[in-house]
Design a protein that fits this description.
Alpha-Beta Plaits, homotetramer, eight-stranded parallel barrel, 11 helices, elongated, four-stranded antiparallel beta sheet, alpha/beta
Chain lengths: ~350, ~350, ~350, ~350
């Protein structure tokens, strides 16, 4: 494959831009565009280079055309050095202030979900996480309430105002999940479900992309690039532990990945210490470590009565534990000078 | 979740069986059945045990009801000690004789595919492997010909008579792929795409389930159990290398998995030394090792001109290399006493 | 093997204790003792249990005898719930205040070492790390100055007063290294060099035990137990990254190990983000994360001119970078409430 | 470090060669030599290149001087394309015929060891493996009989004529172990115990170098290079399984390593399926697979009564199981055309 990045003239008109895109499609090549301060950026790719290069050379409206060597040009830090801020509802992610997302592994009953939602909001959570479609190793395990659970999500949002984060497994569920949730999660097992990524990109909704269990950081950023290449810049990454030989914890939380992602990419990154350790007692220290490593926030599992949770009880905080954690994380955020930034960086708009 | 395995009386009627299943659905529980030599086996599961156990205790047509501790009762060796034989077209997999599957990573042109198909058939291949939907790390890589390539598969089958093995990525493609191929492959990245597994189960078509890059053998057998629990016993496993720290090979081919799977499960298992090593020169010795470890066959990448292949050229054999390999593998199969078994084990029929 | 833990009466005399130990040796069993607030603790082990158990049952001076199921009874948190403080020279490790150890990978020249030592002391380092025996993958690499470098270590200590941390590779070097250094480091490659551990135990000197590249936390604590079982409680652990599939960093720093070790053991634990990441730019955020995770300190590589370092230049901080890091870590330590504790916990003395 | 490989003139005299080596030592550089068909090969290395290069350029007896880029020039296949044969007693390893080494994990009693030795010899074993120094994770485990066990090894050799393979842990034991054994094993935990490797090199005795639990093939060949660079070419490699996330087997036997080592190096390679799987039932298929992959032989644990073995009983074959395995492996060796080669390749002599 040949990939090129081109910059248009500042004064290009919509018609001229559309004309370029039409001709690229005839190469045939694919393309995605981004408005910049001085025109538009075009990322375009085709099976072979010569025809594409010739087409790009032909246009008088392009001021710079470069072959792209990175496999994730749109996710790369170079493309947006100041870093991206992704808004989920009214909550900005990536603006400096640590974001706290909390909630139960699974929706169980409306009462338990509302009890949890109210408590985590009171303790300072920014969003509510909750699963209704649960990918489980065994076909005989609890797989979540499914579509029936979506109403609970809508109710919890209406009641608390918290944006909802939930996992999506099946492209055929996108519309109804997008109706009930604000941040659509792609789980670790689906990080390279490219069909799902491409369809989610088309929704334009914010996506939380968890790292695969044995994905390298480069593969993860390539998966993010699927979303960006198909037009959706609202991508938040989430480190949740990788698979190693170590057995004292459920996974090995790779906090190295936080500064590595910050170096390589402009995308915000959260950390999930609940799955990353698998044990409640390790969640508070690893949440603090995540912020100190530079993460934009944490996402933790909380249940009013973990011992009765239908899934992941061993790694869920109870309500008072979460309240203490939230207080401590705010203090650490302040100690790290991580208040919300005064003026947010100007967002680059989708074309 | 509570899982039970029940055995019906030998003389149970269809009506009586359907009646049991209807009442299980009302618990509510799910169930799958298998005809055995002495009636039917019922595997049934529900969120909580007491109601299900009470329902099972009520039926006079059940002669044995046991709580199931294994997470893969249908894939377990205990369930079918003699081993399963899965037929793909006219080719039995699992009957002792090593099966050889060969072909290009991707369909490129009708001419190249036919050239390859004829050559591998002449050299003794049992099936043709070829991809039209390619999962690729980067959105800017060649992703296969897509639906347009399916006609080539039908033509290659018509021309050579070889059953076709091809990967499927999207549930929405199942019908058209099932029309062009005989063995539907679930790739490593999709081993835990439970949506895809469940939908493939419903087709009743043979499925080749590759091991995930960091999946344990138990997780792999659980993924197979998704297919079996939803009614499809025509499952062939494929070891294709796992992810480790070693960098001299693309993956670490885990041949331990072959005798482990043979011990734990009745399902046939193939080995893919092309992806398992990533280098043509290592394919012949590791193919031989796979058979010696007890694999039911190998699946290897072959291209008439590997240097020109659009993908995976570094690990593809050329046509003379494949012909030599096939000859050697037949010799090793004979040395191991692995001719086709005279009388095949009686297949347990789906209910 | 059978392992027992016995507690003596409070008023046991030295003669009576020696008598017990003599009889244990005749079982034959091995034993190690620790003075406690109410007598002595005896850990004793033999090939088979019955004779040992009978011998223990015979003594009137033992008030409690229990079979030990943990493989690291002396390293276990239960044995000393308040945590251990290990003194290296005048520097306590494990008392709450984060310790900072810094210095070059290798001793190169007296001038460079002194320049570094003075600078890191001025910036607030508590100890000086420096290698003279370097384990290197290749026989053709620089292996350190060897014995000739030890004089430089003595000079740096005399000049700056900083305790010296250096690695030891060969049991035959113990005496001369112990003469020049205060904290003897067992490197990752030697974590299970049980000969070296046993001989180091006999010196009674503080030991810094790095985690092996693919050692589990349990294996690591077992390695520490070798030191304790042979009479040396002055053990400090050091997480330095494990080996995984990830290639964006030299190793995967496993900060999960910090709270896991704190939960399982009373031993202090440091973190080495230089080897744990392999890149200078990732050292500051991962140092902060280490403290936030609960580590008792960090050990980092510093060189006045990293580009000219004979080894590990890519992961060494220069002097201003270290000064900034030290300032930040002190601030984080204070934010975490990690000043030096007012009254140190009473140390359990070696018998 | 700078490394150079130089070839002397065919007619160089001993005095002239010694003169070159003396001058190299004065650079200062280190050097090792090998006699070849046309003179001597000199591998020499120093901290910096220019002085060494100048010294090499000065000599009129050198016909070719090349900077060496490989980190293991002496272990590399290029150095000896025909492959090395290492003799252990009268047994050649690497000449094509598969070698079978068998015996108990540990020496326990003279009677059990002799019973095992006679049985494995009768079944066709080429050497006897047996441990007296056992590296164990826990200080409270059975560590072997130690020096007292060495007499049993001498007796077993005298009685059966089988060469003895045993592990050595401590440089201070080299002389007495070398007196009792023929092939000195460096275990996985000591693969990078460079002190031990260097001292073993000086003995000139054959060494069996096991791969470290998480060592890459390149690191392993570098460890072998330590032996060769210090003058000992009698090195046999042994793959024994690496550490991965998989839990169904004790380790993941990496048979890919066999053809990779054969491609990169001239050294013989054995496979240890006992440690590589951890379960008796998997030893026969993985032994066969090892030979099919191209290994020069296998080393397996055998005990007359595995259930009573003091260590590794779970992975030991009993005597009839071993006899069957040996018969099968001979058959597979013949099927693979792996009889002993008629004329052995001329061994390159140590200078």
């Amino acid at each position: 494959m040949a990939v090129y990045v081109a910059q248009t003239r500042d004064d290009i008109t919509d018609t001229q831009l559309q004309d370029i895109l039409t001709r690229l499609r005839q190469v045939p090549a694919k393309a995605t565009t981004r408005r910049t301060r001085t025109g538009f950026l075009i990322v375009t790719w085709a099976e072979t280079g010569p025809l594409l290069e010739a087409e790009l050379a032909r246009s008088e409206h392009l001021v710079r055309v470069l072959p792209e060597s990175s496999s994730f040009p749109l996710a790369a830090r170079e493309y947006r050095p100041e870093g991206s801020v992704v808004r989920v509802g009214a909550v900005p992610v990536g603006d400096g202030r640590p974001v706290i997302i909390a909630g139960p592994c699974s929706a169980e009953t409306p009462e338990v979900l509302l009890e949890t939602a109210r408590a985590v909001r009171a303790a300072g959570a920014d969003m509510l996480r909750v699963g209704v479609f649960k990918p489980r190793t065994s076909p005989y395990s609890f797989h979540g309430l499914g579509p029936d659970g979506l109403a609970m999500l809508r109710d919890a949002r209406a009641e608390t105002g918290l944006p909802i984060v939930t996992e999506i497994l099946d492209v055929r569920d996108i519309d109804r999940v997008a109706d009930a949730a604000d941040l659509l999660q792609v789980g670790a097992r689906n990080m390279q479900n490219f069909t799902l990524l491409t369809e989610l990109a088309l929704t334009g909704r914010p996506v939380l992309l968890k790292r695969g269990l044995s994905a390298t950081v480069h593969e993860w950023l390539n998966a993010a690039e699927y979303l960006l290449a198909h037009g959706n810049d609202h991508v938040i990454l989430c480190e949740r532990g990788i698979r190693t030989f170590e057995r004292a914890t459920r996974n090995t939380l790779d906090l190295n990945a936080v500064p590595v992602v910050k170096h390589l990419s402009h995308l915000p990154i959260l950390v999930d210490p609940s799955h990353g350790t698998g044990a409640t007692r390790y969640v508070p220290p690893m949440s603090a470590a995540a912020l100190a490593a530079g993460a934009d926030g944490v996402i933790v599992e909380v249940h009013p009565r973990p011992a009765q949770a239908l899934s992941d009880g061993d790694q869920s905080l109870d309500l008072p534990e979460f309240a203490r954690l939230a207080t401590n994380l705010r203090a650490i955020g302040e100690a790290l000078g991580r208040g919300r930034v005064a003026a947010e960086p100007e967002l680059v708009e989708l074309a």
